[in-house]
Amino acid sequence: MASLQMAALLSAPSTPVPSDRVRVGSLRLSASSSSAARNGGALVVRSEAKVSGGGASARGLSLITHAVAEKAAAASSADSKPGHELLLFEALREGLDEEMERDPTVCVMGEDVGHYGGSYKVTKGLATKYGDLRVLDTPIAENSFTGMGIGSAMTGLRPVVEGMNMGFLLLAYNQISNNCGMLHYTSGGQFKIPIVIRGPGGVGRQLGAEHSQRLESYFQSIPGLQMVACSTPYNAKGLMKAAIRSENPVVLFEHVLLYNLKERIPDEEYVLSLEEAEMVRPGEHVTILTYSRMRYHVMQAAKTLVNKGYDPEVIDIRSLKPFDLYTIGNSIKKTHRVLIVEECMRTGGIGASLRSAIIDNFWDYLDAPILCLSSQDVPTPYAGTLENWTVVQPEQIVAAVEQLCK
Amino acid sequence: MAAALLRRASTSPSASLLRPLSGRLFSSSSDESVLSIETSVPFTGHKIEPPSRMVDTTPKELLSFFSDMALMRRMEIAADSLYKAKLIRGFCHLYDGQEAVAVGMEAAITKADGIITAYRDHCTFLGRGGNLVQAFSELMGRQAGCSNGKGGSMHFYKKDASFYGGHGIVGAQVPLGCGVAFAQKYNKEGAVTFALYGDGAANQGQLFEALNISALWDLPAILVCENNHYGMGTAEWRAAKSPAYYKRGDYVPGLKVDGMDALAVKQACKFAKEYALANGPIILEMDTYRYHGHSMSDPGSTYRTRDEISGVRQVSQERDPIERVRKLILAHDIAPASELKDIEKEVRKQVDDAIAQAKESPMPDASELFTNVYVKGYGAESFGADRKEIRATLP
């Protein structure tokens, strides 16, 4: 939790917001973050709400006295802050609910999504609200219900297919690769597949090898598929809505360990761009590219790095296919050093593709070889200590940055 | 469909031999009079009362069966020659012998009903309203093809006629077809979907998964097994412990149909459509036969004898669908044999013209390599509280 609040503090809008435009974007963060560095002192308020945090504008612009947000300030002005606080799985549900309300062709298919409410409660309450024909409990038959989702998408429905764990979707790989990804092409553009395939993946807490898979590395070569990974309640809701509205098949990767993250998100409707990366912390010395859970390990390492005098720029790439080379490229042009931190395995992971994309496009801007920290090429062990050693830990990130910036 | 071709042809100078259909006099019955004809064999039902053997049809319909099947047969034979001339490459799976399934099904349903099939799809495409030029162009990989030359033999689609393809991976089209049926139920369309597969695909697990879900959710899905008795090179008795594919649905009722009798197919599909709209899925097993091998790379004679093929076709069993309809037409005095011969000649000409036209179509442009990978623009805008009101655009 602390890491998220800290992440919220250190992130900032990349362009200053004109003070005459009413926005609540920057106020989604904890109270003290209205002093976030880049804002240039422009206080952005909601028209009816009280100004939060009182002396926000009086605080120094670039002085960060605390690496962790002050909890006291946050608690006292909770009522006056706009937006509402929720957990990541609730944010996903909110996004899904809003889209189902808005568009009657959106339906949900998956195991235990209906009456049970979803094994991670993402679809809780939706079956009672929308009925059994729109929130469908399927038998344990991934290959066929993914195929059925794709078939119904061919006619114009917008199904959201949930894999209870991303790893189970390997059983539906044929449908996802051949039918989902390729039908638009092989039919000469006749059929669109506006399907969303989502589910939790990644290494959890001792879930065992088969339930700790990172499917983004397997799906990334499928042409015609779009992949995004959410990491905060804010981007989870925005990406869910964007994925449902997209005409292309989108795979939305969630992470088992991130479902209970809490954040304050705006009350108004918002939709994020599927192909954009998120600037988590602007900096000058090194570009750290990451996504999903590793974002939090990176931000934890950033705390240490800041205390050691480094200024890392952290970007949550969010869009795994295609990469947002615009944001990434601008960052590399500024810092000239790149570190990729991912949860995929070393061989054939997202980091491997990202590395080669950066080399192809931005070779001239690099002052040092691109470092890529990934999980080990092993099945995830059950024992806790071994499991910790398979994924990248903050200490390794600190060491890598130190090596890069030598 | 072929009748329309014939009518168009009658205005061209070289078709002076062909008398327009509408102007001829029948020796005994008018175009629309109803004939009741018995199917070759009765239907066999599994957990359901089979429909009657007596099928109502009209002379017009029988003639359309004849010309449509003749066109399909001619197209497949021409595709064989084109393949040997290396104008069609890769995989080419031919449907000759099985035409009655495509034609009989079309007679029982509308274009609102969906059809999805596997890779032996050329004739199904034609039945759904596709034209010859599109088909041949696609086979030869040209721009005028129904998938712009990017799909090939196994990827014919026609969205406006609810033809969902055209799929290369065995069995994968059945869950897709059940998904289409799901959407039809979701949108309350009152239509059904026919998901066709072969006796080889009948052993795929995803079929039973999809059938289970369809039965649970009462979807208007009709699973049609085109049993040509060979799954690629393996005979059905060597691949399936229980080759009674119409019974494989267990709790789902099934019907076994003579798939080389267009009238029986029509009756069965009509029956199945009524059943599926009211009750949920049903399985149809079409007992049929393919004269060619599995594909053009398979001679078709290593795992069966030429005698068997000719036996089924004309010698002992006499099940060839076109011959059967020809005999019916002649027996009921609907048209003289010479007219049927003319139709066949005309059909041959249609196919030759279409091939010539398709050959003129160019190969796709190099830029077509990258089109239709994604729907243009990705379709999402970002707005609202994200502080950036930009539209997502392709770089």
From TrEMBL, chain A:
Cofactor: thiamine diphosphate
A Gene Ontology molecular function term of the record: metal ion binding
InterPro entries found in the cross-reference section: THDP-binding, Transketo_C/PFOR_II, Transketolase-like_Pyr-bd, Transketolase_C
Swiss-Prot/TrEMBL keywords: Chloroplast, Metal-binding, Oxidoreductase, Plastid, Potassium, Pyruvate, Thiamine pyrophosphate, Transit peptide
Annotated catalysed reactions: N(6)-[(R)-lipoyl]-L-lysyl-[protein] + pyruvate + H(+) = N(6)-[(R)-S(8)-acetyldihydrolipoyl]-L-lysyl-[protein] + CO2
EC number per UniProt: 1.2.4.1
Record keyword Chloroplast present: yes
Subcellular location: Plastid, Chloroplast
GO cellular component terms given for this protein: chloroplast
Domain Transketolase-like pyrimidine-binding residues, every copy: 86-261
UniProt KW Transit peptide keyword: yes
Pfam family, one: Transketolase_C
PANTHER family (alphabetical): PYRUVATE DEHYDROGENASE E1 COMPONENT BETA SUBUNIT, PYRUVATE DEHYDROGENASE E1 COMPONENT SUBUNIT BETA
Xref: NCBIfam families: PRK09212.1
Subunit structure: Tetramer of 2 alpha and 2 beta subunits.
Entry function: The pyruvate dehydrogenase complex catalyzes the overall conversion of pyruvate to acetyl-CoA and CO(2). It contains multiple copies of three enzymatic components: pyruvate dehydrogenase (E1), dihydrolipoamide acetyltransferase (E2) and lipoamide dehydrogenase (E3).
Protein name: pyruvate dehydrogenase (acetyl-transferring)
Lineage of source species: Eukaryota, Viridiplantae, Streptophyta, Embryophyta, Tracheophyta
UniProtKB/TrEMBL annotation, chain B:
Catalytic activity, EC: 1.2.4.1
Reactions performed catalytically: N(6)-[(R)-lipoyl]-L-lysyl-[protein] + pyruvate + H(+) = N(6)-[(R)-S(8)-acetyldihydrolipoyl]-L-lysyl-[protein] + CO2
UniProt keyword annotations, A-Z: Oxidoreductase, Pyruvate, Thiamine pyrophosphate
Enzyme class name: oxidoreductase
Domain of life: Eukaryota
One of the protein's GO biological processes: pyruvate decarboxylation to acetyl-CoA
Residue intervals of the Dehydrogenase E1 component domain: 68-366
Gene3D superfamilies: 3.40.50.970
A single GO molecular function term of this UniProt record: pyruvate dehydrogenase (acetyl-transferring) activity
Keyword Oxidoreductase: yes
Keyword Nuclease included in the entry's annotation: no
One protein family per Pfam: E1_dh
SUPFAM superfamilies tied to this protein: Thiamin diphosphate-binding fold (THDP-binding)
Cofactor requirement: thiamine diphosphate
Role noted for this protein: The pyruvate dehydrogenase complex catalyzes the overall conversion of pyruvate to acetyl-CoA and CO(2). It contains multiple copies of three enzymatic components: pyruvate dehydrogenase (E1), dihydrolipoamide acetyltransferase (E2) and lipoamide dehydrogenase (E3).
Subunit: Tetramer of 2 alpha and 2 beta subunits.
Name under which the protein is recorded: Pyruvate dehydrogenase E1 component subunit alpha
